[in-house]
Write a structure and sequence with these properties.
By secondary structure, the chain is of the alpha+beta class. The chain is built from three helices and six strands; from the N terminus they run ββββαααββ. It has one domain.
Length: about 90
């Protein structure tokens, strides 16, 4: 498990009692990997899956491969990875 500075639901810094919140951040990392598109991060322009542009289309083998590659590059091992007929994604990682 990783600890990092947390973001709130609006992707702003989470602040409690005037301080940044630092806590377990694996789910936040996964959410950011899925949400960000390539080029969104200046420091790491190849990071991001851009799931929002894929949700209306077909989630094919290339999309699946991209998810596996992005999580692997961030040192996550996907133990469960399923996409159902409603395009709902189930991920579990170590």
């Amino acid at each position: 498990m990783r600890n990092d500075i947390l973001l709130n639901e609006d992707f702003d810094l989470a602040i409690e009692v005037g301080d940044l919140v630092v806590s377990q951040s694996d789910n936040q990392h996964a959410r950011l990997l899925l949400t960000l598109s390539k080029g969104d991060l200046t420091e790491s322009p190849m990071v991001g899956i851009g799931i929002l542009r894929h949700l209306k289309g077909v989630l094919d083998a290339n999309f699946r491969r991209e998810i596996v590659l992005q999580f692997s590059a961030d040192a996550y091992d996907l133990s469960v990875f399923n996409i159902n007929n409603n395009n709902e994604i189930d991920l579990k990682f170590d």
